[in-house]
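lol forgot to send this yesterday, sorry. struct tokens for the thing we talked abt
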């Protein structure tokens, strides 16, 4: 049953994120959580929870309707939930962000402890950073 609970946590996190209930999403991150973003982008690297809150808050100022992240496939084993997902959002400049991800979540005591985000970095660079 714990695997289903872990998958439900991941779904709740992304539902909150996708509907701009950011405090609800942030509350699902452990105080010592880390968030890693793949690639060589200026935003790539490892973030503490506080740093991730700052990063995501900054990015979301460019997306007044938010970025909807839709889980496609979730697979759980031990304390991990792997997720394939797709995002969709429109920047204030009208550019559409539609990325594809594989995100690994590590769960501890009902919270997300570590998140590893693999994404199309070329698309992210073209839409988010240029």
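and heres what i got for the seq, position by position
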């Amino acid at each position: 049953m714990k695997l289903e609970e872990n998958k439900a946590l991941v779904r709740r996190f992304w539902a909150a994120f996708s509907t701009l209930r950011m405090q609800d999403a942030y509350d699902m991150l452990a105080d010592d959580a880390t968030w890693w973003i793949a690639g060589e982008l200026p935003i790539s690297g490892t973030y503490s929870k506080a740093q991730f809150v700052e990063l995501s808050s900054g990015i979301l100022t460019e997306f007044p309707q938010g970025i909807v992240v839709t889980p496609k496939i979730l697979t759980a084993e031990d304390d991990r939930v792997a997720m394939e997902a797709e995002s969709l959002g429109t920047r204030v400049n009208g550019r559409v962000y539609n990325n594809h991800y594989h995100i690994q979540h590590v769960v501890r005591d009902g919270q997300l402890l570590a998140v590893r985000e693999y994404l199309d970095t070329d698309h992210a660079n073209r839409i988010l950073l240029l």
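The chain has one domain: 2-129. anyway ping me if u want another try
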